[in-house]
Amino acid sequence: MDLSIKKIFLTISILIIILSYFGFKNIQADSGDNTSGYAWSENIGWISFNNTTGGGSDYGVQVDPSTGDLSGYTWSENIGWISFNRSDTGNPPENPFKNGTPIAKHDKNSNGITGWMRVLASGDGWDGWIKFYNTTLDINGDWHGWAWSDVVVGWISFNGSDPNASNNYKVSSIGVVNQPPVASNLSITKGNYCSNPAHYFSWTYSDFDGDDEDKYEFQVDNDSDFSSLVASRTINNPTTNNQTVLVYVSPATDKIIYNTTYYWRVKVYDSNGADSGWVSGSSFITETHQYPLINFSWSPSNPSQNEEIIFTDESTVYGGSSKSAWSWSLIDGNPASSSQQNPTTQFNSTEEKQVTLQVTDSDGYSCSMSKAVSIQSELPQWQED
């Protein structure tokens, strides 16, 4: 018989022995198997991590999304079944998996896979251990790195795109890697510069995995490289995603100042420690200077019905500007409005009257203030006999 034919018959015989020893019922894949694809070893060739397409036996590997424990089987045409189940393999050679439940585990924080898998051979076949070395999962769940055994197998590569690897192959696990959260809909709103000079920032937190928000970082700077932070805040266990930064005349801690361009950004974290990375909002410019500070008085201070009242503007404008316009609203007054700086009016009825002054400066900034003026009953007219 030709030597090559003898090798084929020998290989088939070994596979029949292996399958009959373990039986297909012992290597059925759970319907939740979430790992698929192929790894490669120059010594033993392809290693398949899932086969649920029919034909022969179904098998696969499961990475538990909650615990990270690996279970199930892979298949190599040259060495047979490779198991992640302690019930098949017994204890691995080294801790920390020697006395634990899984023999291999995925760590959600580092996204690394550590531990062992074992070849299940029968008769005189090799049934040695294979150890993971620098194996990680990327954000898409694709495996990278290697496993090693100094007998038969040598190095096993999990991704053909890795350095020192070649070919178009990879192993992937779906729904295992914690997806980072997302900060979106970043917006900024200018506050009321008359009463409370400030800017209001908001954004939306979302997470593909449904993880809760653990914290966020918020930063504002007058440099786009964020090298000299003006405001830097970390909020743990947030219930809302917004911040307010006040505008001051002169520099102060955690405040912004007038007539300056600013940049801002946020980073959100989920409950599993993943973050969105820095996400920048649009830059903004604070107003050139303070808005007018409105104030006014009147004389007499306790006016009577039909008595002439003089209103005096006592407002202050800033930034080298001047007052350019006045708008008075004198409810029930005669006249009931005025554009003079210091108007005169009288009220033909008693009780409190609302008076409002709006002042506009030469830069177009305007603010207003209202006060209540109490009108007394008209004084009686006395006439001598």
Describe it:
The structure is a single chain. This protein is mainly β and 385 residues long. The protein is 6% helix and 43% strand. It has helices spanning 3-22, 86-89; strands spanning 35-41, 45-48, 50-51, 59-63, 70-76, 80-83, 104-106, 112-120, 129-137, 143-149, 154-157, 171-173, 182-190, 198-206, 213-221, 229-236, 242-248, 256-257, 261-270, 279-280, 284-285, 296-299, 309-313, 323-330, 337-338, 344-345, 351-361, 366-375. The radius of gyration is 39 Å and the shape is rod-shaped.
List the helices and strands and how they pair.
Elements: H1 3-22, E1 35-41, E2 45-48, E3 50-51, E4 59-63, E5 70-76, E6 80-83, H2 86-89, E7 104-106, E8 112-120, E9 129-137, E10 143-149, E11 154-157, E12 171-173, E13 182-190, E14 198-206, E15 213-221, E16 229-236, E17 242-248, E18 256-257, E19 261-270, E20 279-280, E21 284-285, E22 296-299, E23 309-313, E24 323-330, E25 337-338, E26 344-345, E27 351-361, E28 366-375
Parallel strand pairs: 17-18
Antiparallel strand pairs: 1-2, 1-11, 1-12, 2-5, 3-4, 4-5, 5-6, 6-8, 7-8, 8-9, 9-10, 10-11, 13-14, 14-17, 15-16, 15-19, 19-20, 19-21, 22-23, 23-26, 24-25, 24-27, 27-28
